[in-house]
Every structure is written in structure tokens, then in C-alpha cells.
């Protein structure tokens, strides 16, 4: 009786393992498809998973804001 329960539990675990392996394989396939799609569209991702172009655009935007802040601070100092 105990061996029957152990066999059922083993069978259940094997089925669960097979399903998880299938899910992992499906996810890997989808990830490969995504990478191929991104490569076809010349989209390069940075380490954070964001488009590298976006990172360079953000850098420019931050630099512009810093310049504006410096200009604003200079104007404020002149008015004081």
C-alpha cells in the first residue's frame, strides 16, 4: 500500500517536471523569437533591457536639463 502511494507521488512529480520542462522550452523559444525580432529591427538593448537608443536620448535630455538648471541658477544669482 505504501509503495502504491509512493509510485503515484513519483508519477505526479514526473508529470509536473515534464510540464515545467515544456514551459521552460516554450519560454526559451519565445525569447529566441523576441531576440530575432529585435535584431531584425536593429534594436539593441542595454544591460537594463532598455533600447540603447533610449539610453542615449535620455543622456542628452539629462544634459539639456542640467544646462538649463545651471543657466537658471546663474540668473537667480544675478537677480539677488
Structure, described:
Helix content is 84%, strand content 0%. With 80 residues, it is an all-alpha fold. The protein folds into two domains: 1-43; 46-80. It is elongated and about 90 Å long. The termini are far apart. The model has no long low-confidence stretch (mean pLDDT 86).
Number of helices: 2
Residues in helices, as a percent range: over 70%
Could you report the average pLDDT, rounded to the nearest whole number?
86
Radius of gyration: 28 Å
The outline comes out as elongated
Structurally, the number of domains stands at 2
Helix and strand element order: HH
β-strand percent reads under 5%
| Structural class by SSE content | mainly alpha
Task: List segments where confidence is low: pLDDT < 50 over at least 5 consecutive residues.
Answer: none
C-alpha termini separation:
91 Å
Q: Specify the biggest β-sheet.
A: none
Number of DSSP strand runs: 0
Notable features of this structure?
mainly alpha; 2 helices; 2 domains; 84% helix; 80 residues
Compose a concise summary of this entry.
The chain is an all-alpha fold and 80 residues long. The chain is built from 2 helices and no strands.
